[in-house]
């Protein structure tokens, strides 16, 4: 553990969508390994609560940012780099899922899924990559989903967006492969977060199932028979950020108990 802490000491990491769930766990894990972490999200009060919680683990700074707005991203990145220096690690965690049968999925929902899940990755990566290339070192980790590796019913726009994230990851990884920067994606299965709790509530409302039955339905997709925990995703992200992980590039790594094996 001490060696890992030394490996990330002094590195500045920006984690989007970090006020809760997977993003919060990733921020904590990076802090525990010695990184200085800027957390970004849209809600000021949620950020303040997260900052207070994370401050026990290391140096943390927060910025209000709308990951779908280029001006907001530019301002947040500028604030973060003024506070902690050049961003060496970017974790594109901001995302959202909406469900509907394909024939009831309108263009507004389709566009929203691409805005928050794909455009945000594109714009945030463009904002921080120049400094990484200038310093010949950087890590970008995109939080995708098993929905980027396979299809699921009733979430066609979300699946399409997450497939696009993986395509973007692979393409950009090839562009920067010889420049000291790696680009990878993590693809969690159903994870114990507010997003999944919302899905459980949706199943209960539409089917009349109990919470236990709805949770069991989602857990059944994992061969291990349980939901993924945010800490499991965070551990994988930390590994990809280590200097020793430089040989891993352009990969989409599933954290799903074997669902996509």
Automatic annotation (TrEMBL):
It comes from the Bacteria. InterPro entries: NAD(P)-bd_dom_sf, Sc_DH/Rdtase_CS, SDR, SDR_fam. CDD domains: SDR_c. One of its GO terms (biological process) is monocarboxylic acid metabolic process. It holds the Pfam family adh_short. PROSITE patterns: ADH_SHORT. NCBIfam families: PRK07231.1. Belongs to the short-chain dehydrogenases/reductases (SDR) family. This is SDR family oxidoreductase.
């Amino acid at each position: 553990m001490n060696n890992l802490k030394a490996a990330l000491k002094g590195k500045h990491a920006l984690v989007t969508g970090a006020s809760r769930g997977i993003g919060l766990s990733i921020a904590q894990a990076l802090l525990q390994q010695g990184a200085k972490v800027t957390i970004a999200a849209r809600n000021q009060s949620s950020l303040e609560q997260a900052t207070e919680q994370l401050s026990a683990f290391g140096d943390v700074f927060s910025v209000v940012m709308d990951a779908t707005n280029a001006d907001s991203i530019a301002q947040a990145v500028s604030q973060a780099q003024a506070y902690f220096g050049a961003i060496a690690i970017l974790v594109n965690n901001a995302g959202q899922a909406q469900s509907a049968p394909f024939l009831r999925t309108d263009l507004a929902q389709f566009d929203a899924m691409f805005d928050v899940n794909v455009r945000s990755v594109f714009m945030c990566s463009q904002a921080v990559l120049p400094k990484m290339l200038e310093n010949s070192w950087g890590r970008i980790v995109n939080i995708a989903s098993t929905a980027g590796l396979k299809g699921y019913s009733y979430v066609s726009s979300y699946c399409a967006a997450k497939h696009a994230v993986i395509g973007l990851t692979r393409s950009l990884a090839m562009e920067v492969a010889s420049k000291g920067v790696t680009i990878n994606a993590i693809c969690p299965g159903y994870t114990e977060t507010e997003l999944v709790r919302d899905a459980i509530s949706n199943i209960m409302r539409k089917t009349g199932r109990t919470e236990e039955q709805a949770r069991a339905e989602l857990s059944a997709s994992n061969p291990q028979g349980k939901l993924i925990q945010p800490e499991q995703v965070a551990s994988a992200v930390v590994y990809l950020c280590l200097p020793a992980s430089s040989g891993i590039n352009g990969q989409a790594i599933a954290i799903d108990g074997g669902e996509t094996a």
